[in-house]
Amino acid sequence: MSSLTVTDEQVSATPAKVIQPAWVRVMHWTNAVAMVLMILSGWQIYNASPLFGFSFPREYTLGGWLGGGLLWHFAAMWLLMINGLAYLVTGFATGRFRKKLLPITPSGVLHDVRAALTFKLGHDDLSVYNYVQRTLYAGIILVGVLIVLSGLGMWKPVQLHWLVTLFGDYPTARYVHFFCMAAICAFLVVHVLLALLVPKSLRAMIIGR
Amino acid sequence: MAKRSFLIPGVDKRLLIKDSIKTMPDVTRRRFIAGGASLGALTLLTGCDVVDSSSADALLAKISKFNDAVQDFIFNPDALAPTFAESAITKPFPFNAYYDLDDAPEVNGDDWKLEVRGLVDNKKSWTLPELYKLPQVTQITRHICVEGWSAIGSWTGTPLRDFLKLIGADTRAKYVWFQCADKDGYNSPLDMRTALHPQTQMTFKYAGEILPRAYGFPMKIRVPTKLGFKNPKYVVSMEVTNDYKGGYWEDQGYNSFSGS
């Protein structure tokens, strides 16, 4: 059995350091599922009383009808909120947010946006986020908080009236909720596109290295 | 989806589908409704059929029941819905139902009686003149529809809790269940704590005028702490009961508590 004992040498020879710890990966993909469920059921609810002069195509909505969309929305919200809260707490507690997302300086952002647009932005070290990434990730976390708060306010405008007051009134909270969704969809397009352009970053979010 | 060419001119497609679903046996009906949920896009994303309809249905129904309990838990019987100035009233206040205004019940106020049933001491029926004699209060509150739109209106009537006291209702019972004159028999239950909320009202007037047909003549129940579909119109009877008797929309899947 001694052949099975692990020596110090073997341990130190482990490959590439972990870029995305397990908790980040699990919560990232849980959030991805929750977000897709929330967006598609949200479109179903939107279609029942559109805020603007358009509706979302039926085949991209969840639930079959308003009642079904609401069932999905108020089920997936628990996944989104519990996972999101765990992510925020862990992100602050471990110092990951501070280490990965800060500082964000205007000059740094400008420099990296310019570099990105001229395809000169390197991704040699995946464990360090460039200023474009920092801005997008910090921004989407804030939007995530905002969409949950405005959603809770719409769900309970009497019991949580202070939340609605935060946004102004009920109709305003509804608009905030919609524009947060639009921002998340825009982020999704950019985020997925960039992940596909830099496949090793996608790999890191799946297997950690 | 039905193709346009199969449609009967002048027949509302959505209502037709709804009516056909009703004629299906229960299991088929549930699967049909959930069928709308088995979604190509999601299937593509995950590579599996997310919605095996019957199990997804059962899970969603369970979570909705759990959400009832959560909402009951956070319901504060003393928290009042915001009230507004007259200038904030939405004009015109929208008519809203699952049918057109032409199909709204035309109740004859002279013949109409409010029937009282269940766990109450005094089961006498009430005529409109008798009800009009009860003390009335006015509220200007926001009506929020399950669809997301909202409108501010002015409703006048008797607080339901005063009426329940007057008829000697057992307020330890779980529900007050309302039945209405709408076609297809609208009905809806109110949990007792909401029924006893100070702003829950038996409404006889809108904007100071006798409740018009569009808004539920002769009586609606105004519940500013619930979504619109929990505000029954054209009410013909109320029953104080411990049994959950379902409701028109609740039976089709709207969350039963639907508090706001």
Automatic annotation (TrEMBL), chain A:
GO terms for biological process: respiratory electron transport chain. Keywords: Cell membrane, Electron transport, Heme, Iron, Membrane, Metal-binding, Transmembrane, Transmembrane helix, Transport. It is found in: Cell membrane. SUPFAM superfamilies: Transmembrane di-heme cytochromes. GO terms for molecular function: electron transfer activity; heme binding; iron ion binding. Coiled coil: none annotated. The chain crosses the membrane at residues 26-46, 66-90, 136-155, 175-199. Signal peptide: none annotated. Belongs to the HupC/HyaC/HydC family. This is Cytochrome b/b6 domain-containing protein. The lineage of its organism: Bacteria, Pseudomonadati, Pseudomonadota, Alphaproteobacteria, Hyphomicrobiales.
TrEMBL record, chain B:
Pfam families: Oxidored_molyb. Coiled coil: none annotated. Residues 104-249 form the Oxidoreductase molybdopterin-binding domain. It comes from the Bacteria. InterPro entries: OxRdtase_Mopterin-bd_dom, OxRdtase_Mopterin-bd_sf, TAT_signal. SUPFAM superfamilies: Oxidoreductase molybdopterin-binding domain. Gene3D superfamilies: Oxidoreductase, molybdopterin-binding domain (3.90.420.10). PANTHER family: BLL0505 PROTEIN, PROTEIN-METHIONINE-SULFOXIDE REDUCTASE. This is Molybdopterin-dependent oxidoreductase. It comes from Bradyrhizobium betae.
